[in-house]
Design goal:
With 149 residues, the protein is of the alpha/beta class. The chain has two domains: 30 residues; 113 residues, Hypothetical Protein Ychn, Chain: A, CATH 3.40.1260. Helix content is 48%, strand content 17%. The protein has five helices and five strands. α3 links the parallel β2 and β3. The chain is globular and about 75 Å long. The relative contact order is 0.16.
C-alpha cells in the first residue's frame, strides 16, 4: 500500500509540473487579447470625468494599441459635444481621442430631440441611429466590457 501512495504521489507531481509548464508556455507565446471597452455617458456633469477616465485607461494599458474604446453619448451629455458651444479643451481631447481610433457614438434619438446633426457635433462622431442604448448592447454582444463611471 505504501508503494501505491508513493507511485500516486509521483504521478501527481509529474502531472502538476507538466500542467504548470504548459500554462507558462501558453502565457509566453500567446499575446494578451486586446481589451474592448464601451463607456456610457449621459450625465452632462460627468463629461470631463469620463474623458479623464478614458485618458487614464489609455495611459494605464500603454495606449490605444492595447485597448479598443468606444464612447456612447446620449441625453444631456450630448450638449457638451455641440461644436458651437464646446469648450476648447473638450474639443482638443475629442480630436486626440478620435485620431487614436476611439469611437464616439451619438444617440440618434437624442440628436433628434436636440435638433442636431453630425455636422453640429464635434468631428469624429458617428450616429447611433437606433439609439445609444442599442449601440451599447451591440458593442456588448461583440465582446465589449461595459463601463458607466
Amino acid at each position: 500500500m505504501h508503494r501505491r501512495n508513493i507511485l500516486w504521489g509521483a504521478i501527481s507531481a509529474v502531472s502538476a509540473a507538466f500542467a504548470a509548464s504548459r500554462a507558462s508556455a501558453v502565457s509566453e507565446t500567446a499575446p494578451p487579447a486586446k481589451l474592448k471597452v464601451v463607456y456610457h455617458l449621459n450625465d452632462l456633469d460627468k463629461v470631463s470625468f469620463v474623458l479623464g477616465n478614458i485618458q487614464n485607461h489609455l495611459d494605464g494599458v500603454g495606449g490605444p494599441d492595447h485597448v479598443t474604446i468606444a464612447l456612447v453619448v446620449h441625453g444631456q451629455a450630448l450638449r457638451a459635444f455641440h461644436s458651437a458651444s464646446a469648450n476648447p479643451d473638450l474639443s482638443r481631447r475629442v480630436g486626440q481621442f478620435s485620431k487614436a481610433g476611439l469611437e464616439f457614438a451619438a444617440c440618434g434619438n437624442t440628436m433628434k430631440s436636440q435638433n442636431v446633426t453630425l455636422k453640429d457635433l464635434l468631428p469624429g462622431f458617428i450616429a447611433a441611429g437606433q439609439g445609444g442604448v442599442v449601440r451599447i448592447a451591440e458593442l456588448q454582444s461583440q465582446g465589449y466590457l461595459y463601463l458607466r463611471p
